[in-house]
Amino acid sequence: MSLNLNNGNQLVRSALLLAVMVLLIAGCAAQSVRPYPDEPPPEQTPEELPEPESRRIPPQMLAAAELTVQGREQLRNGRYEQAIRTFERALNVHPGHGPTYYYLAEAWLKTGNLTQAKTFNRQAHTYLKNHSGWLRKILDQKRRIAHPRM
After folding, report:
1. What pTM does this model have?
2. Which of 27, 32, 37, 123 is the most buried (most CB within 10 A)?
3. How far apart are CA 68 and CA 99, in angstroms?
4. Separation of alpha carbons 101 and 104, rounded Å
5. pLDDT tens per residue, range 10-54
6. Domain boundaries, the chain
């Protein structure tokens, strides 16, 4: 029995993604992870109780956040097309992860596709408009999309 090389690569990629997600979920279960990393941490008091079960971060959001971190690294390294694919994967895992829309708009802006950049900037605004730190970044990005440097 022989496997097609592409099927074998796909199986390896799927297995690696599953392993990363399991490790991410297991490693983050005992620690508090902020889904919006550029936000300041909330104030804590010594008598603060553990988060109720209903306030725990869903595994899909954690996976999307991890993929977004990978995409940001690709974006920083100038691998814009790869970053776009990674951000799209993150949104497939958790379509409501607002920061991913911001970085996806940034990647499209870097490629010069202003239509796509504008679309994802609007989505970022929809999900993050109530987060002042993100709102400033989104509005700055909107300005850069409207007036790109040539």
Report:
1. 0.64
2. 123
3. 8
4. 5
5. 665 666 666 656 555 555 544 445 555 555 445 544 445 455 555
6. 57-150
